[in-house]
Amino acid sequence: MVFLARCSVDLEAQHSAQPCLSKHIAEGLFTAPALQAFFEISAGGLISSGPTSSTGSDAAVTAEVHSQGSEMRSEDNLRPPELEWVERPTQLGQAPGEEGFDAWLEEALPRLRQEKVNANVVFGVSTAGDVEHSTGILHDWWSAGGHPRQWDDSRPDPHVADLMGLPRDRTFILHDGAAHLLGCSRRIVPMPRLACFSVGTGVGFGISDEEGGILDPFSSAGSRSHLLNGVPLSGAPYRGTWRSWVEQTEHVDEVEKVMLREFAGMARPWNMPWVSLVLGRRGMELAEAAFGCHPPQHLQAEKDDGGSQLPPCDDVERRPASAAYAQQWLHFLNTQFLPQCCSGTRRHRAEQVCFGGLVAETNWVSLQEAIVGPDSCVAPLPIAGPAQVPAASAKRGKASKNAAPAKSPTVRVLPLAPHASGLIGAGLYALAGLGRSEMGIWAK
Length: 444
Hints:
4-stranded mixed sheet; 28% helix; alpha+beta; single chain; 14 helices; 18% strand
């Protein structure tokens, strides 16, 4: 997934969009003052969800702030603050790929042509792939943890700005996992030892060091901190607990349709399951098919008063599917993530986790109930829960025994990331680029 953030130096507006090579694109617009107000209010805690007479960024500044306490709760008419959008995130449709990408993007965003010639506007882009943050060169890319896709050897690896038709000197590029990490914790600088799971088509991943610096997945120092079983987390082997759904379902035809669909370029993906397949959108779709539940109301089905798209919510009718999906996440955290990425022997171990992305937002009620224990930390696997499925070895493809340790590390679960956290992170990165300080977010 790729994010484009357009930021105005004169504080007129910040524009975030999510373009990708042959992938669906999301777009949204917000102002720099609103972003500043969002971070200031987030430092105060929960806010009232009641109506306010203010508009625009003034509404964010004058919102009533409440003490957060030990937990963020949705009751008592309180909610975490959200960014005040000028244009809420919107799906633009599917990009045509490398050829014609710039023309397609300019047609989809009519204001882009004027912004490209306006020296007061900068652009932040995030992408899934091997991107050099210092140069903006994209060496290869992949989607949903699938096989990396490389450029033709007859030509140099492209600059992301050139692919999108943006000015190089005002375009700043980062990895999409880092964008979600930057936008998930409602702080300008990420919390120390924070891991972020961005759950959409696949599972993106970002992690910060002991000082809050973002670890570069393509640097020698940060690459190992993104590995699970020796493979980047999004593409790491993971068998999951979904087989129990399939074996017991009465909806065989619906399940087969989901399992036979291509995913990340693989014709039969469930023969060799991995993290992004099992825990991303396709895993949720398999749960919906197995339990006979309808899919969530998509963004285009829900509009606010201004016609902008709103995120869907977790509804009661989908609860059997979302609950099973959430239990699978709990299994992954306890048998894979905690023992490997949160142990004391890990150089950059995670001590807290955050979830973001549309699939996490849609199913957060069930995810929170399953994953978050009474101490706001990752809950242990229930004694009478689903049978523990051994992890697949990345080297030999064999099942490893005793995947879960006797006692898992204590890892705190943060509240759900703000809506469109990847867009917020890309916008924040672009703002850092205004002062040529964007490289300061990375771990030293």
